[in-house]
Specification:
12 helices; 396 residues; Rossmann fold; alpha/beta; globular
Length: 396
């Protein structure tokens, strides 16, 4: 079949296997070109390992530190006439590259929120690695089935307290319009915390520690975002922000739990980037488009792989994590540079559909979005007949 992008709203329903493989190869090249991470982790579990920051974390650990990696995710394989999800193709490509480099890589596909998946992962660690010295938590899901109660929770992206009205970008048309979002109601906040908060991260660490699967000195990190004030009503002070506050609560609890192992838990606040998750958040795509334009001109733009390489290389494993007053690692430091934010804030006030091409980087936004699904990469023949069925070597 000839695979082309089919975009529906903020998602792409197709993915290109050769394009995803090329995207993975390019990320690996970034890490390898920067040289080895001397004191990096050697046995790493990545929960949510197939796309975005999770995939970049796995690549950074494997090809920066020569780490053995176990990746957990929930992706759909390809079948006749239907492509797999991008995360499936990403993982197939990653495992192929890891094998060529002589690196251990094992992947498990299923519900990462479930007790069964935790048990499978612990068994794999015990069988192959003994223990892990790093646990990366990078799950992004719209819903969660609680492993103990069976309750199903659904997250929402809403402000808290009052209607939020602001500028927005129609990512299909490039039109800058206005959007109004009704505030959270009922148990919206509690539902969102149950899905996107810290409970599952805590459950993972408890299960791993109880099974003796965590090595002395283990570090675990979960990812968050804060952003500028213009996004706060829908993000930092919205339902998702409440979930991220819960993540920080759990980080402090895990510090106590891991103390006997001389371990450490971190929340890393990362840069705004085009990911499958961020594309769904109103207001954020317009902000990202303006931000990209400014940071690229300044020479400080990073994508997921540069961010995760910097996290491992310059913060977690060189003895200089540089936490902020709340104990968080701030990989958004270049984004939040006052000289950057001042320009972005002014452009936010000025931007219209007519001048958006001048003030924003819509081409960069669209390119980044399509690359998530393996489209628009150089060296890939998108006119070639493509087989959607691609195997992940470690998955039967």
């Amino acid at each position: 079949m000839i695979v082309v992008p089919k975009i529906r709203g903020f998602i792409c329903t197709t993915a290109h296997p050769a394009g995803c493989a090329q995207h993975v190869a390019e990320q690996i090249a970034v890490v390898k070109n920067r040289g080895p991470v001397t004191h990096g982790p050697k046995k790493v579990l990545v929960i949510g390992a197939s796309t975005g920051y999770g995939l970049a974390s796995r690549i950074a650990a494997a090809f920066g530190s020569n780490a053995a990696t176990i990746g957990v995710f929930f992706e759909r394989p390809g079948e006749d006439g239907r492509t797999a999800t991008a995360g499936w193709y990403n993982t197939a490509a990653f495992e192929k590259e890891a094998a060529a480099a002589g690196l251990y890589a094992r992947s498990l596909n299923g519900d990462a929120f479930s007790d069964d998946m935790k048990a499978q992962v612990i068994a794999a660690i015990k069988e192959d690695l003994g223990q892990v010295d790093a646990v990366i938590y990078s799950l992004a899901s719209p819903r969660r089935t609680h492993p103990k109660t069976g309750d199903i929770f659904k997250s929402v992206l809403k402000p808290v307290g009052e209607v939020f009205t602001n500028k927005n970008l129609n990512t299909t048309t490039g039109v800058v319009n206005e959007i109004s979002i009704e505030p959270a109601q009922g148990d919206d906040v509690a539902q969102t915390i149950a899905v996107m908060g810290g409970e599952d991260w805590e459950m993972w660490i408890e299960a791993l520690q109880s099974a003796g699967a965590l090595a002395p000195g283990v570090q675990t990190v979960a990812y968050s975002y804060i952003g500028p004030e213009v996004t706060w009503p829908i993000y930092k002070n919205g339902t998702i922000g409440r979930a991220k506050e819960d993540l920080e609560r759990v980080q402090r609890a895990l510090d106590v739990r891991l103390a006997p192992l001389q371990g450490k838990a971190w929340v890393s606040v990362n840069k705004a980037l085009v990911t499958q998750a961020s594309s769904a958040i109103p207001v954020v795509p317009l902000y990202i488009s303006l931000l990209y334009k400014v940071m690229k001109a300044k020479g400080t733009h990073e994508d997921c792989i540069e961010q995760m390489d910097r996290l491992f290389r310059d913060r977690l494993y060189n003895g200089q994590p540089q936490p902020d007053e709340a104990g968080r690692i701030r990989l958004d430091d270049w984004e939040m540079d006052p000289s950057v934010q001042q320009v972005v804030a002014q452009r936010w006030q000025d931007v219209t559909t007519e001048n958006f091409g001048e003030l924003g980087d819509f081409d960069g936004y669209q390119s980044s979005f399509l690359r998530l699904f393996g489209f628009g990469l150089s060296g890939v023949d998108y006119t070639a007949d493509t087989t959607p069925e691609v195997a992940i070597p470690s998955i039967p």
